[in-house]
Amino acid sequence: MIELQDALRRKEIWAVGGGKGGIGKSLITGNIGISLARLKKKVLLVDADLGGANLHTTLGIGVPEMTLSDFLSRRVENIQDVIIQSEIKNLSLISGAQDFLDAANPNFSQKTRLLRHLETVDADYILLDLGAGTSYNILDFFLFSDQGILVVLPEPTAIENAYRFIKSAFYRRFKKVVTHQGIKDLIDAAMDQKNTMGIRTPYDLIERVKLMEREVGEILELEITKFRPKLIVNQVRTKGDIQIGFSIKSACNKYFGINLEYLGYVEYDDSVWQSIRSKRPLAVEYPYSRPARCIERIVHNLLRKEQLTLSTLY
Amino acid sequence: MVKKIEDLNYYELLEIDPRASTQEVYRAYDRIKKVYEPNSVALYSLFSPEETAILRQRIEEAYRTLINDPKRKEYDMVLRELRELPEPEPEAQRMPTYQPPPVQQRPVVVRKPAEREPFLGNETRPQPAPSAPPPQQAEVPVPEQPRPAPLTITEFTGTAIRAVRENAGLSIRDVAGITKISERYLGYIEKEEFKKLPARAYLKGFLPQYAKAIGLDPERMTGDYLRRYDAAMER
């Protein structure tokens, strides 16, 4: 318990993404937030899904008056003005944009202003609920966070998007550490899976970069090892589905050379849609349901910097 | 250090520590094999079917090498030359596994690869007169060929199973290490000493394990073998 308290001391930003829509990002973010709040930590949830915000709904908060777009468009100056207290102690929310179309694509200065303000907020944890897709905004929030969490379903479509997300995220990360324009162009070209240069894997790319500038290639190699996204498999129905998390981890390691951490899984259960229907948070309405317990376990893994081990399967 | 898939060594391929025990090798193989199955959902959009096929082949190679003690030692030497493995305190930590003297355990104890061929030839001959009393069933034909072709198996008899095992370069002890079935029972299975085997229900559990360890189709081997077992036991 003591180590848990220590882990909880410092402010951290966690981002939840996944590439595909409708895979439970908001649900998981919201309930991770509730779990943390119950551990007596101040939590701020930020609905960074600027196109299709609905984190407030999973928390049982009605359509909010003040949203992130009010802040981004400077209709309010202070971020405090858009923070809504939830009925759960220690848990507050910045809701996503409802109407403002431009907000779906904030520019660089808007983003940095947001991040700067977030740093000043009195909270132990700031959770960003990212939208679907792999737009630069989403990737930037993901890369900026202390912990980038990927949600995936045990289905080909979701897995495909997750891989695309991973690839986009770290190619974007590559581009940020590189200054050489030629190499930047090369990275851009490598993003296209069907590129004509025969670059298929990050390994190929690094080899190519090394030919251009050896040190830069080595820096990129280092970047790969530093990139450690976390994985949650949602809507798990069978033991085989749990296994998929380990398989994705293995495939990522062999293909991308990155170490994905398998945080945990969330079991499929009717309690989830029942709670959504009743517009009440899962962890409040069905705290002892299996999905709610799964999410609690994920929170513990996050706090202790642990991940699932294969022994869970035996 | 980022490595191309083709450059991964067998340990990296199976995602195990170079000091992994035989059983850990087997477990890892069993798991990794499933990850890289042709229709594995986790590979979707990442690997092409050709790439997966090559990977699977390498995984087989890795398993066959690491499960076989002489071959593994040879491979470790190569890796050490490539500086992919640190120099270990030689043998020290792995020796105990092979140390204990087998009780009445004659088959395939010699591990020097060079002696393998002639030894196998001799080995079949003393078969009918082991220290244990030969029961009625023991006279099941034992082929004289030092190495019967394993690919032409029509029925999984004890001898056929043994031939496959030897062809894979595995000793009874290796298989016992993987499956955790006692060496004695494995020997009885191969010699078809049905009376000495435990109850049918146990045998039914052993056979698929054994089949998997030596790379045979578990269902076929179990079916075949139990049919022979039933026929013999009825008499």
Describe this structure in words.
The complex is a heterodimer of chains A (314) and B (235). Chain A is α/β, with parallel strands linked by helices and 314 residues long. Chain A has one domain: 3-Layer(aba) Sandwich (Rossmann fold), CATH 3.40.50. In chain A, 48% of the residues lie in helices and 14% in strands. Chain A has an eight-stranded mixed beta sheet, sandwiched between helices. In chain A, strand 3 and strand 4 (91-94) form a beta hairpin. In chain A, helix 2 (25-38) packs across helix 14. Chain A is globular and about 60 Å long. Chain A starts with a helix and ends in an 11-residue tail after the last helix. The model of chain A has no long low-confidence stretch (mean pLDDT 87). By secondary structure, chain B is mostly helical. Chain B has two domains: 5-81, DnaJ domain (Helix Hairpins), CATH 1.10.287; 101-126 and 133-234, lambda repressor-like DNA-binding domains (434 Repressor (Amino-terminal Domain), Orthogonal Bundle). Helices cover 50% and strands 0% of the residues of chain B. Chain B is built from ten helices and no strands. In chain B, helix 9 runs antiparallel to helix 10. Chain B is globular. The N and C termini of chain B lie far apart (64 Å). The model of chain B is unreliable at 91-100 and 104-150 (pLDDT under 50). Chains A and B meet through helix 7, helix 9, helix 10 and helix 11 of A and helix 2 of B.
